[in-house]
Amino acid sequence: MDTLLSGQLLFAALVSGSLYALIALGLNLVYGTLRLLNIAHGDLVMIGAYTAFWLFTLLSIPPVVSFFVAAALCALLGWAVYEGMFRRLLANPGLAKRVEANSLILFYGISVILQNLTALAFTSSSRGYQYLDTVITWQGVSMTGNRLLSLGVAGGICIAALLFLRFHLFGWELRAVIQRREAAQIVGVNLNRVQPIIICAGFAIAGIAGVLVSMTEQITPFMGFPFTIIAFVVIIIGGLGNIGAGVLAGLSLGLIETYGVALTSPGYRSILIYGLFVAVLLIRPEGIFTKAVRS
Amino acid sequence: MKTTRRLACAALGAAAALSVAGAAWAADPIRIGYSMARTGIFAAAAPSQENPYELWKEQVNAAGGLELPGGEKRPVEFVSYDDQSNPANTVRIYEKLITQDKVDLLAAPWGTPMHLALAPVLQRYKFPMVGNTAASVQLRKVAPGYIWFPTSAIPDAMGPALAEMMAANGITSAAIIANELPYAQEFRSFLLPALKEKGIEVVMDESYPPDIKDMTSSLVQIRDKAPDAVIAMTYPSDAFLFAGQAKELGLKSPFVLSLIGPTIDAYRKVFGSAADGIIASAHWSPEATEWTRGKAFFDAYVAKFGEEPDALDSALSYMSLEILQQAVAKAGLDHEALREAIATGTFDTINGEVKFDGVQNDVTPTGFVQIQDGKIELVWPESIKTSDYQPKQGW
Amino acid sequence: MKALDIIFGLALAIGGLLVPLSGDAYLMGLVFQLAMWIALAQSWSMLSSTTGYLSLGHAVFYGIGAYVCVLLTGVVPFGVALAAGAAASAVFAGLIGLPVLRVQGPYFVILTYGLAELVRNVVMRIESALGSFGRMIFMVPSFEVLVWCMVALGILATLGAAAVRHSALGAGLAAIRENEVAAETVGVPVARLKLLAFVASATIPGAVGGLALLRTGYFEPAQAFDPVISFTIVTMALVGGTETVRGPVLGALGFTLLSEALWSSLPQLYMIVLGLTLIAFILFVPRGLSGLADRALGRG
């Protein structure tokens, strides 16, 4: 019982929750505006992690700088993917009709290519580096520096994104596209401008998440898939395409996971998460944090 | 810089591989076939096995080739395929290697499931192969014949050995957390009765799924219960999670074991001095001076790959080829003669003497290593230890 | 065109059944693989091509079949174990079908994936609670027998898919794909038809999982429920083309043979080339190999 009420557990829940929210945010932006199921999302996290690793190991550039490099790299990749594939896909009515199935397979292809190119270039050996691993104790809660940084960055970006969506004009356009795609076009939102920006932003966020992950986990070319999955779990719980609810859901998933495990046993961790995921889809596919708006 | 060079190397390597496939070798090479989990769930572990293969090949060829009875030497060439971490592919690849590619010798694939799936194939074609990266009590059920397992890290031996080591170091209580994957669960099932026999109290016993992302609640409980020993039956991915969070929470237990993971080079790079004192499963150490070939292997590996070999899998992989090499020198390439030579011979390896009884190596003792000053030292058993066990001094 | 398809199918089937007589292990391995993917992709198409409900979780049926089969091997004759595997998958599909098939579009895709992962984790938990650490099977039937069984499953699945498409059931399913609400309005028993298609598409993968397991002789939940299986099925079916019965056959054939060719000639690059091929197909050949075949033969 003491454990349950300790700040330690809350800290752990917030660290994982904020990371889940961040990773899911990128996926949700891309799904919300383009209706693309990005199965390669976790592989962008992997690219971000490798960027941070090589910059740190070869050039001693710390992750706080790598954030920008990883974000730029992934955004570039997003732009290339959009220009090279999805512009064509979305412009072709025949292909766009089955955009979910097609984007799933396209991204599966991209995922396979990214993983294997990375393995070819860097071998599949595990990598890792030591950064900011001093433990700070505050009010009886021990926090490793890199986990604290992760919480700060992930939380900060999520909040910034939410504020941007609420208060910036482009944020409004974006929400319009997500909620009423056709109507947004009629009132003058330029989809050809919004879409590439969003896919770049979504990819960049995944890259930043990768830098965060690289500080605490081992880095391999095949590390991405679990992140894709967790991101899907989060955006389903929040509601596909609902950005704010997705962030809330990410945080909640961190809490549910940590406290669920503490109340039962770690053995039930994955059953709990997938059980919740399936239950939400069956009972309330529009997400538990989304007000049911049905036409 | 290094990255671009690697890329260039990879590209050149691919080009070279293509051109070599076409051109004929000067001397008729001995072709050795294997499959490797280059992609899929085991991919991260594959280099720890394939690097020693490459090193061995380079060394053998530099020495003029693989020696046959009568002193003739022929160069070695590898024929390898990716099995995508799928045992069904492994089976197909070895059938192809044997019947289509008609390789002269076989080296082992990665992992227990692959070895187990392969045993009947080897039996069917009467093709001997020395295994390496497999460890399970299930191996003991494999009918002796054409496959051998040099490992001594088999859970039914490790359980009692660990309990004995703990008792010898005055441990009276332990907390166990175990991955749900088979090897960890097997070990757990043999450790629990052994601990009971030694009178070591188990204050906590939990299992977790392989995709666990946070261990805080278990580790906080362990911290509060303050047992003498923490036995974390980890696989590589969760080994990183465990060490990071155990450090964060400042576990005070002096005896900390993390089953698989700490012997990987990257682990020590991530945790630095925090990794000191962690115990892991392995029966080889480069520090063992009586195994003279061991240090040479270690140095050559570091020079070639820029990182340290995994004390468990890399050592086993290299050993398996050493055994093959010595058996071929004695018996040549005839499968039956080779089988006989492997089954009855005694081999000198980087891990000392090896001799098989049935499918198992019955010489190398089951051991445990500890990270001390960033080095992998054997601390158990007495007969092969390179250093004394030291209680873990903080993180 | 019908005649050509039938001749092609017959040639494949007879070829497949004759291969074990050759005793060539490599060829048998290839045929086993081919037949396996044809059976899986064809089963998948019974639900997903016909109704447009895209399942990304067919590994769950494969895994359940494998699990039931490994539990029963040695207890009952292997044919019975396989049948039980298929039956278990069908029953599972029947039980979850109604609620699952109420979920549509991208939600259905993700739900099926999540279900497969959930079952995988539950089986893993059960196995660890039972103190079982991967199960080994001895005394498996000869490989020739396994190849025959797998080819038979491939044929059965293809016939099944053809039957589904060319029956009243198929017409109903097509109506659901085009407009589910409208279909319901005009009196198509939507829920019942979808469930029927779901169960039909789950059955054969159960037996396939059992056979594939007998081939390797080793069961571990993490591998039996490998999500890569689900992805490969969808990939093959889409590359083949979803509009015809011949699509999944061509997709499985094309994909398996391509990876076979690349796998031995470009060991380092073949996954990358496969990924590129996949992308090229979706973008430039939307009707899949099947559509390509039509065009090559001057129909279209």
Quick tags:
heterotrimer, A: mainly alpha, two-stranded antiparallel sheet, 13 helices, 2 strands, globular, C: 300 residues, mainly alpha, 14 helices, 1% strand
What does this protein structure show overall?
The complex is a heterotrimer of chains A (295), B (395) and C (300). Chain A is mainly α. Chain A has helices at residues 2-5, 7-34, 41-59, 63-91, 93-97, 99-122, 145-167, 169-179, 181-186, 191-214, 225-238, 243-263, 269-283; strands at 135-138, 141-144. Chain A has one domain. The model of chain A has no long low-confidence stretch (mean pLDDT 91). A two-stranded antiparallel sheet of chain A has the order 1-2. Chain B folds into 2 domains: 26-153 and 290-361, Rossmann fold (3-Layer(aba) Sandwich), CATH 3.40.50; 155-281 and 367-384, 3-Layer(aba) Sandwich (Rossmann fold), CATH 3.40.50.2300. Chain B is built from 12 helices and 17 strands. In chain B, helix 6 links the parallel strand 8 (173-179) and strand 9. The longest helix of chain B has 21 residues, at 2-22. By secondary structure, chain C is mostly helical. Chain C has one domain. Chain C is 80% helix and 1% strand. Chain C contains 14 helices and 2 strands. Chain C has a two-stranded antiparallel ribbon. The radius of gyration of chain C is 19 Å and the shape is globular. Chains in contact: A-B, A-C, B-C. Chains A and B meet through helix 2, helix 6, strand 2, helix 12 and helix 13 of A and helix 1, helix 2, strand 9, helix 7 and helix 8 of B.
Provide a short characterization of the protein structure:
The complex is a heterotrimer of chains A (295), B (395) and C (300). With 295 residues, chain A is an all-alpha fold. Chain A contains 13 helices and two strands.
Number of domains of chain B: 2
Uncertain stretches of 5 or more adjacent residues of chain C: none
Q: In percent, how helical is the residue content of chain B? A: 40-55%
The arrangement of helices and strands of chain B along the chain is HEHEEEHEHEEHEHEHEHEHEHHHEEEEE
| Strand fraction of chain B | 15-25%
> What is the name of the CATH superfamily of the largest domain in chain B?
Response regulator
Assign the CATH topology of the largest domain in chain B. Answer: Rossmann fold
Gyration radius over CA of chain C: 19 Å
Q: How is the biggest beta sheet of chain C arranged?
A: 2 strands, antiparallel
Structural class of chain B: alpha/beta
Q: Which structural class matches the secondary elements of chain C?
A: mainly alpha
> What is the residue-mean pLDDT of chain B, rounded to a whole number?
91
Share of helix among residues of chain C? over 70%
Largest sheet of chain B: 7 strands, mixed
Q: Assess the beta-strand content of chain C as a share of residues.
A: under 5%
Question: What shape does the CA trace of chain C take?
Answer: globular
Please give the number of β-strands of chain B: 17
Mean pLDDT of chain C: 92
User: Cα-atom Rg of chain B, whole angstroms?
Assistant: 21 Å
Number of domains of chain C: 1
